Amino acid sequence: MKIVVLAGGTSTERDVSLSSGSMIYKALKRRGHQAILLDVYLGYEGETGDIFEREWDFAAEIGSVGEKNPDLEEIRAMRKDGGKSFFGPHVLELCQRADCVFMALHGANGEDGKIQACFELMGICYTGADFVSSAMAMDKGITKDLFRAYQIPTPAGIRMKKGETEEQKVPFPCIVKSCCGGSSVGVCIARSEEEYEAAKAEAFRYDDEVVIEQYIEGREFSVGVMDGKAFPVIEIAPKAGFYDYKNKYQADSTVETCPAHIPEEKTRQLQEIAEKVFRVLRLNNYARMDFRMNHGGEIFCLEANTLPGMTPTSLLPQEAAAVGIDFEELCERILACAFRTR
Q1: Cα 149 to chain centroid, rounded
Q2: pLDDT band at 311 (very low <50, low <70, confident <90, very high)
């Protein structure tokens, strides 16, 4: 099949997306697909006539994920047309020519439903959740409202827009995070008033609305769901600090155990909640839900990721491997599910 792997973009998760895209692209090539890797924002300036038939390594120039966030202004300055359209040269043309677009995008303008809505209007098949589900899951405030409405356990918290004053305070320690961010960019733990004010300032750098919620002391878990069925539970234990951007993507920063060493009843509970979140947010294809468990064994769902990472250190591929699904087969199953649900 002709597959466009769409990555990059202009979100704070750009580097992670490029790493995911590179892994997916190479896996699809090994499976015999006519795959190309495209940066959704920078596009492709060359001749596109036989692009799917050519043999070269589109991923060769893509580096590993760094410890710092990408310089987005530098990326935007690379567009010769000034970046008037979000889509780079030939991107939509090539997506229309493909049998399917494998979405390797993370964060804003990629995971928030905007590109998915465009593809729906243009009749382009793509992987991941549809535009409505993507938009709901990307907004952590909307997600928490739905969790409460459907009795999904989630940490207590509030939403606050830039310039507003809190009507109520979340007790310390608390988590402050941008409403529509990802990869723990703009996420801080506050244990004092000074840390709290600094955390709000950091989160507001990335979004005009933030979520402030109770920090759950304890253990962290994640559960992937594909086609409505949960994968094994994975436990995430950073060697230092919490599961921030560095600990997520730098090798040897975190101990990840799959299947998690927890009682069978807790495994079932986490999987059942993950599958319920998948239904409540009207997700399809695949997603990954993140959890905390306090020292008393209570489980809290934090959020849903509609395009979870597919990097060398990502959680979903590790969960799939625990049930005998290697990375290439995982990519094939995601594609097959996209054809069934579109």
Answers
A1: 24
A2: confident
